[in-house]
Design a protein that fits this description.
nine-stranded mixed β-sheet, 2 domains, globular, Rossmann fold, alpha/beta, 11 helices, disordered N terminus, five-stranded parallel β-sheet
């Protein structure tokens, strides 16, 4: 028994050293973990915006914004970790195309790390029974989704050991994510385990299967690469971002520092409409606003507008990528916000979301300049 324990310790230590060496952690000279975040068609919601902010602000991560064309052209080369936010996995897979899917699988297989939330989790699943969603990296399939609410997720012993976190319940945002089911089909070169399960059926509706006890966090290997996926959104709120840190630890073997959002005194508060944050330029525009020290930016969507969050904003920004118009209820709320002196602005296609009372700019630079002037004048 002693020999077995000693051998296990040696193996664990060697694995840790190898992982640390891979990320330049020898002798305390850690280099930033090169992290790509997807900005192509199919991602949407506040979670995608928060992923850009988290990676951009962490001193231990180096952000590269990546779209589908970049992936097809080899844009994953040189990355340590690739993050796929939530949205629509069929749209993501379609946008990647056959070559993009092959590039992503190859990246993981050859040793790249992958962190996926919600749709980013769906993307890793097997193609059956819905070939439009998964790319066949892990032996799980999606059996349903329902609602948007906070749900308690229990991290089990294996999950705690893998992430360096404590076992127990974590309250995390769920937003129409997959209900994970283990498959009987084997995926060559894949080995995955359930790290956490749902401990509630809150928000249950429709004919979908019950959520209680179903997998919510899964981790494992595909070839030489490590994959960490969740059906929930730990990136949404600061109290659940401990699981973001745990996921990076499982993938890279390193603990990372996460940014803590701090409000600037008398900051100019900007609601950044984040329903369809498509494109590299749109993501860069958001980060440029976020980096302005006079501005306190937070993502906002239709539900947030219905809940009255515009009452806490000075401005509402519509990026270029958005299309279509606001639904009737949030449209009326935004109109009242503008009539009370709220600054509503957009550039390019963003103006189509709210055509009335929206200051329209031809490009991102002009919109950013106008917003910066407003923020400076408000000090």
């Amino acid at each position: 028994m002693k020999k077995m324990n000693i051998r296990n310790i040696v193996v664990a230590v060697c694995a840790t050293i190898a992982s640390a060496a891979a990320f330049g952690d020898e002798g305390g000279s850690a280099r930033p973990i090169k992290t790509g975040v997807y900005a192509g068609r199919g991602i949407s919601g506040n979670g995608a915006t928060e992923w850009f902010r988290i990676v951009n602000r962490s001193p231990d991560l180096e952000l590269k914004i990546v779209d589908s064309k970049m992936i097809r052209d080899g844009g994953l080369d040189g990355l340590d970790v690739f993050v796929m936010p939530g949205g629509s996995s069929p749209d993501i897979k379609k946008d990647l195309g056959t070559n993009g899917v092959a590039r992503l699988r190859e990246f993981i297989w050859n040793g790249g790390g992958y962190f996926g939330t919600c749709a980013g989790c769906c993307l890793m699943m097997e193609e059956a029974p819905d070939p439009s969603r998964g790319i066949g990296v892990m032996p799980f399939y999606r059996s349903g989704s329902k609602g948007r609410f906070l749900i308690p997720v229990e991290l089990n012993k294996e999950g705690a050991e893998a992430t360096g976190l404590k076992t127990g319940l974590y309250s995390i945002q769920y937003s129409h994510g997959p209900i994970l089911e283990p498959s009987t089909q084997l995926v060559a070169g894949a080995s995955f385990k359930v790290f956490g399960v749902n401990r509630s059926d809150s928000g249950k509706h429709g004919k979908g299967p019950e959520m209680y006890g179903r997998a919510a966090i899964v981790g494992g290997t595909f070839g030489k690469g490590r994959v960490f996926v969740t059906s929930v959104h730990p990136e949404f709120f600061e109290n659940s971002r401990v699981l973001v840190r745990g996921g990076f630890r499982f993938i890279t073997g390193r603990d990372i520092a996460l940014p803590v959002r701090q409000r600037t005194p008398r900051a100019y508060t900007v609601g950044y409409y984040s329903v369809y944050p498509i494109g590299v330029e749109t993501a860069k525009t958001m980060l440029a606003i976020d980096e302005n020290k006079d501005i306190d930016l937070f993502p906002i969507n239709d539900e947030d507008i219905r809940r009255g969050l515009l009452d806490h904003c000075d401005a509402l920004f519509f990026p270029h990528a958005f299309k279509g118009r606001l639904d009737r209820v949030p449209l009326g709320i935004v109109e009242r916000f503008a009539s009370r002196g709220g600054f509503v602005l957009g550039w390019g296609g963003g103006a189509t979301r709210f055509p009335g009372g929206c200051k329209v700019y031809d490009n991102a630079a002009a919109a950013l300049s106008a917003l910066a002037e407003r923020a400076a004048a408000a000090k």
